[in-house]
Specification:
The complex is a heterodimer of chains A (256) and B (339). With 256 residues, chain A is of the alpha+beta class. Chain A contains 5 helices and 14 strands. In chain B, helix 1 packs across helix 5. The longest helix of chain B has 11 residues, at 37-47. In chain B, the strands form 5 sheets. In chain B, strands 13-20-17-18-15-14-21 form a 7-stranded mixed β-barrel. A 6-stranded antiparallel sheet of chain B has the order 7-6-9-4-1-11, with no helix packed on it. Classes of the chains: A alpha+beta (256), B alpha+beta (339). At the A-B interface, strand 1, strand 2, strand 3 and strand 4 of A face helix 2, strand 16, strand 19 and helix 4 of B. Chain B: GO terms for molecular function: ATP binding; hydrolase activity.
Chain lengths: 256, 339
């Protein structure tokens, strides 16, 4: 059985970047199958390039951890034409060294680490070979970016954390982390939109609501935003949670 | 003045659904909407609407409904036992429902999802561009007994009842699929065996997706350790950690970590969504060119369905109030002259 795979022969695209079909109206540009830091930077950088390019007849361009998804209007263009334009955008640049543009927005979100708000902090720090204090210091000083939004609505994947945080998922599921939980695995953090089971370790919690169906915009974060967690005490966070403010004390600064 | 539809009794899986929300991948929201979108097109064809509109989706079981103003209704999707004031009415057809009459919709006799569409439209306020309830995202909620939904005015009450012979998509069958970004993670032997295997729809399933059962060894992917999570979508055939297929439906997540062998064509989604527990399902790989050719045949779906619909001709013996109808031009039972 022959299965067509890449939409274009590898020689048409630079290096090992692949241009692949996803469903009847999607094209996925994938930089790597595994979550490798260069591929994450490349996906962010290519997302910047693609958004700035005059690509016609597209419904959406969306970045993920190692890929960028293009949804085309099949009534106005073809998969082949779209793939050709995408290959053109990819050509002539070394994606292994590409870096995303500086963020135009930076979020500062209060987070309480450890204790009842981060029950897995000690275990996760130990796995990373750090004391809980050093772990908090490293996580709150790393300039994080919103790498992708997904799984659940509004939910950001943040990264990448330094190498010690390349932690595997847990053997058994964490039955339930609360809304606003910060969980860690594979050099990334997730800020949960809703209470959810997860294989990631909960090290902190925020009072920030990533999905606000009745607000405009419903999802305040955007892929590419910079984000910093600001450590606060457990009592401070309990207060922020009690206030019911969906921002949870977060501040968004815009840079031109 | 617009009216309401009352839900006096409700099965466990009732929700308002339309065609869902396209273009929201960037906020992590899957399309959602009707599990069987074809059923909404059929309803629009039967009611003579220019586009499909929001309907009440009913999983396996319907409910008792009443309207406060006359409204044509369409009953589409999985066939369910239905009656108006205890008189059986045809499925895959449109009917006139008068205030005070009780529309009773019972259990599905085949398939899973039935749809009740009112010609005036269910006018709950749209959120993020759609009226569709998206349970996993927390948009809207399941409908329960006692619910009252705003109903738009049906401006074409004079249009007669119509019927549509619909494709049987309620007992499984063959699902055509295309390759996706991870097809190559499955070796040729595994892919060939996948295409030759007869699956059955497992009892485990909902609007997010359905699991499939089969005999034999698992369908393992040669996925590298640390496979990055990536975009997933409706129609994707995921292999869980145990190597069992799970076909994603309308309310799936948008990013996932399990390898996927391919994506079921949009026009075959109703067949998997409507497959009842135990139904037999097979997969047939098609090329992208073939998938594009098939997609092109779907472009005029609504017009084609409208052409296929015919006047509902009822057996006079089944009409309890036969004399209320104008059987001969100019001759009536006289009641309409008083109204």
């Amino acid at each position: 059985m022959s299965v067509e795979y890449a939409l274009l022969p590898p020689s048409a695209g630079p290096q090992d970047v692949q241009i692949l079909p996803l469903g009847q109206d999607g094209i996925l540009v994938r930089f790597a199958l595994r979550a490798e830091p260069w591929a994450t930077s490349a996906a962010q950088a290519f997302y910047d390039t693609a958004r700035a390019a005059p690509l016609p007849h597209l419904h959406e361009i969306v970045p993920s951890l190692t890929s960028v998804l293009f949804r085309f209007d099949a009534t106005k263009t073809t998969r082949a034409e779209c793939a050709r334009q995408i290959a053109e955008l990819l050509s002539g640049r070394d994606w292994h060294t590409a870096m995303p543009q500086p963020a135009t927005r930076i979020w500062r979100i209060p987070a309480a680490f450890g204790g009842e708000h981060g029950p897995d902090l000690e275990a996760a720090s130990k796995l990373a070979g750090l004391s809980p204090e050093a772990a908090i210091e490293m996580i709150t000083t790393t300039p994080l970016r919103v790498l992708a939004i997904g799984f659940a609505p509004g939910q950001p994947y943040l990264g990448l954390l330094p190498k010690p945080w390349d932690l595997p998922r847990m053997q058994s599921l964490n039955p339930q982390v609360p809304k606003g939980a910060i969980a860690v695995a594979v050099r990334q953090l997730v800020l949960f939109s809703n209470a959810s089971p997860t294989g990631w370790r909960q090290i902190a919690r925020t009072a920030f609501a990533p999905f606000r169906p009745d607000a405009e915009p419903a999802v305040p974060l955007r892929a590419g935003d910079a984000l910093q967690l600001v450590p606060v005490s457990g009592d401070d966070l309990t207060g922020l949670l009690a206030s019911g403010d969906p921002a949870g004390g977060a501040i968004c600064e815009t840079r031109e | 003045m617009s009216g309401q539809i009352f839900i006096h009794k409700a099965g466990p899986g009732l929700s308002v659904q339309d065609l869902g929300r396209l273009g929201q991948t960037h906020i992590g929201l899957s399309r959602g909407g009707a599990a069987d979108r074809l059923a909404l097109y059929e309803a629009a064809a039967l009611l003579g609407l220019s586009v499909p509109i929001a309907a009440i989706e009913m999983a396996a079981m319907g409910g008792d409904f009443e309207v406060t103003q006359p409204s044509r209704i369409a009953l589409t999707g999985a066939p369910m036992r239905a009656s108006i004031d205890a008189h059986p009415v045809a499925w895959s057809a449109s009917h006139l429902l008068q205030p005070g009459q009780i529309l009773r919709i019972g259990a599905a006799t085949a398939g899973v999802f039935g749809y009740l569409t009112c010609a005036g439209g269910i006018e709950v306020p749209p959120k993020l561009g759609s009226r569709a309830t998206h349970l996993s995202a927390g948009l809207g909620a399941a409908l329960t007994a006692g619910a009252r939904l705003p109903l738009g005015v049906d401006n074409a009450l004079e249009k007669g009842a119509r019927v549509l012979r619909c494709d049987n998509r309620f007992e499984g069958g063959t699902l055509r699929y295309i390759s996706g970004p991870q097809t190559e993670l499955f070796d040729a032997t595994t892919r060939a065996r996948f295409d030759q295997t007869c699956f059955t729809r497992s009892p485990s399933g909902n609007r997010q997706g359905v699991a499939l059962d089969f005999e034999g060894t698992a369908f393992a992917a040669q996925a590298p350790k640390g496979l990055a999570s990536d975009f997933i979508q409706e129609g994707d055939i995921q292999m869980t950690g145990a190597g069992h297929p799970f076909v994603l439906l309308a309310e799936c997540q948008t990013i996932g970590g399990y390898p996927r062998i391919g994506t079921v064509l949009d026009c075959d989604i109703p067949k998997i969504a409507q497959a009842p527990v135990g139904a037999r399902l097979r997969f047939a790989h098609v090329t992208l060119a073939e998938a594009d050719r098939i997609a092109a045949t779907q472009e005029n779906l609504l017009q084609n369905l409208r052409r296929q619909s015919t006047d509902l001709i009822r057996d006079p013996r089944m009409i309890p109030d036969l004399l209320a109808y104008q059987l001969i031009s100019g001759v009536t039972a006289g009641r309409d002259l008083e109204e």
